[in-house]
Amino acid sequence: MIREARTADVPAVVELEALTQGVDAWSENLVRDGIEGGLPTISYLVAEDDGIQGYAVASYAGDIAELQRIGVAEDARRRGLATALLDEVVAHAPSTGADRMLLEVRADNTGALSFYAARGFVEIDRRPRYYRDGTDAVVMRLPLVAGCGGRA
User: Fold this and answer.
1) Do 43 and 57 touch, CB atoms closer than 8 A?
2) Residue 129 CB partners (closer than 8 Å, separation 6+)
3) What is the pLDDT of residue 49?
4) Rounded to an integer, what distance in angstroms lies between the CA atom of residue 78 and that of residue 89?
5) Which of 10, 17, 81, 127 is within CB 3.0–4.6 Å of 47 for a Cys-Cys bond?
6) Collapsed DSSP state (helix, strand, coil) of residue 102
7) Hey, where are the domains in the chain?
8) Which of 87, 89, 104 is nearest to 44 (CA)?
9) What is the architecture of the domain spanning 2-102?
10) Could you give the CA distance from residue 24 to residue 63 in angstroms, rounded to a whole number?
């Protein structure tokens, strides 16, 4: 089940954040602030199946939605949770006024690059040495409405 995150989910999301994002993980305070509404443009979703198995974070500002994170517990992968989370984020975005969704992904994360490409995201730019370890970020876009990058 995909649902909005609640304050009680903070510890589980923080744990998944650390496990899935490594050295680039966000702090507990930042996660808590996002979930509890202290960051008004940020939305957290969780995938719940006998506990929190995954989460997604998106920001919505004007005509741009940005997928900031998707993380799924290692033992829950390959069950469609990332797809379900992404589908919810994408479905919600137009209601916020967004006409496109952006994201950044590590250039060395071939699995994530393939995952997003298979769902219609296209590379539009690169950010050299974006991550702490010097890895480039690939910037990808998904048009959400007709006329924004080719979506019909």
Assistant:
1) yes
2) 135, 136
3) 85
4) 19
5) 81
6) strand
7) 2-102
8) 89
9) 3-Layer(aba) Sandwich (3.40)
10) 27
